Amino acid sequence: MQTSTIFPETLHHRRQRLAELIDFPAILWSDSSSSRNFPANVFPFRPSSHFLYFGGITLQNPVIRLESGKLQLFID
């Protein structure tokens, strides 16, 4: 698993801020392998931007559940 260069405190702050704005769980998924912007792209995978913004990890096919500022990671 590849982790982000973003500090854990930053990710925690983002999740806490989201928790202040909504009162229901949020589900975000990373997506599966596909070409990114064009077929000649040499990188086979990039997680969705929302997944990276709140989770900070690069994995294929996981889902994160955000509720009350806490993150649960589910991996297929």
Give the CATH level 1 class. Answer: Alpha Beta
> What is the residue-mean pLDDT, rounded to a whole number?
81
The global form is elongated
Give unreliable regions as ranges.
none
Helical residues, percent: 25-40%
Helix/strand-derived category reads: alpha+beta
Could you give the distance between the termini?
14 Å
Look up the CATH topology. Answer: Creatine Amidinohydrolase, Chain A, domain 1
The biggest sheet, with number of strands, parallel, antiparallel or mixed sense and barrel status, is: 3 strands, antiparallel
CATH superfamily: Creatinase/prolidase N-terminal domain
Counting H and I runs of at least 4 residues, what is the number of helices?
2
Q: What count of domains describes the coordinates? A: 1
Write down the secondary-structure element order. EHEHEEE
What is the topological layout?
Elements (H helix, E strand, L loop, with lengths): L1 E2 L4 H14 L4 E4 L19 H7 L1 E2 L4 E5 L2 E5 L2
Antiparallel strand pairs: 1-3, 2-4, 4-5
Q: Could you list some keywords that capture this structure?
A:
Creatine Amidinohydrolase, Chain A, domain 1; 28% helix; alpha+beta; elongated; single chain; 76 residues; 3-stranded antiparallel beta sheet; 2 helices
Molecular structure report:
The chain is an alpha+beta fold. It has one domain (2-74): Creatine Amidinohydrolase, Chain A, domain 1. 28% of the residues lie in helices and 24% in strands. It has 2 helices and 5 strands. It has helices spanning 8-21, 49-55, and strands at 2-3, 26-29, 57-58, 63-67, 70-74. It has a 3-stranded antiparallel β-sheet. Strands 1-3 form a two-stranded antiparallel sheet. The longest helix is centred in the N-terminal third of the chain and has 14 residues, at 8-21.
